[in-house]
Amino acid sequence: MAASGALLFLFVVGHLVGNLQIFLGPEAINRYGHFLQSNMEIIWPARIGLIVLVALHVWSAILISIENTAARPVGYAGDPAAPAASYASRTMLMSGIIIAAFIIYHLLHYTVQVKAINLTGTDFLTLHDEKDRHDVYAMMVLGFRQPLVSGFYVVAMALLCMHLSHGIYAMFQSLGIKVGCCPCLPKCLAKWGSILIFLGYISIPLAVLLRLIGKDVL
Questions:
Q1: Do residues 93 and 84 make contact, with C-beta atoms less than 8 angstroms apart?
Q2: Which H helix or E strand runs over 57?
Q3: pLDDT at position 45
Q4: Which pLDDT tens digit goes with each residue over 86-119?
Q5: Burial level of 139, CB count in 10 A (0-12/13-18/19+)?
Q6: Secondary structure (3-state) at 134
Q7: Close Cβ partners of 9 (under 8 Å, ≥ 6 residues apart)
Q8: Could you report the per-residue pLDDT of 122-139, keeping only the tens digit for each?
Q9: In this structure, are residues 209 and 144 in contact, taking their beta carbons and an 8 Å threshold?
Q10: Cα atoms in the 13 Å half-sphere on the side-chain side of 121
Q11: What are the residues whose beta carbons fall under 8 Å from the beta carbon of 37, sequence distance 6 or more?
């Protein structure tokens, strides 16, 4: 669980860095997208690796949930909303399931580019810039102009970062990583790292909805 989660966290950060290139304009994000799509020897091993990591993470989560239930089939007495565990830690399985549903939609939306679910009436596969590259910039702008899509994205990122706020801290504990000089560092990294990731991801749909970027995309 911890090892697969750590690698997935690195992907989340790398994916964010790539997506934020939209603020550099169409040339930057389209060049980045073209590089990925034109290097199949990179993209397919990465995709397969991600699928394996997600499968391992889900499998580990199911096993841990089963073991926890078997260890205590009867719940704690008293107010179930007042245990020492944080809300994020108590809802890891629920948030994980919703995040998984979002990932499936997100892949169909921007990777497979299924026209029926983008709510724009535009086939994203037909979008190309003047250099005949796939126009990732226009695709993202058109996609996030739909309030329902952007709203779902923001909610999913909130759940993801709530998931990370506990997962990053738990990763340090599970892998036995100790920070002797600063014992509070894992908690600080988990809290502020997840907040920064959330702000980074939602900045894109918010900028599109507020017409801060993509005003020239019709």
A1: no
A2: helix 40-71
A3: 92
A4: 666 666 777 778 888 888 999 999 999 999 999 9
A5: buried
A6: strand
A7: 164, 167, 168, 171
A8: 999 999 999 999 999 999
A9: yes
A10: 1
A11: 43, 134
d(CA 139, CA 109): 10
- The DSSP call for residue 72 is -
What DSSP letter does each residue of 140-187 carry, written as one string?
A: HHHHHTSHHHHHHHHHHHHHHHHHHHHHHHHHHHHTT---TT-TTHHH
Partners of 129 in the β-ladder: none
Q: Are 109 and 132 in contact (CB under 8 A)?
A: no
Residue 216 DSSP class: T
Tokens 């779902």 belong to 152
In DSSP terms, which residues pair with 83 in a beta bridge? Answer: none
| C-alpha–C-alpha distance, residues 127 and 134, integer Å | 6
Residue type for 47, please? R
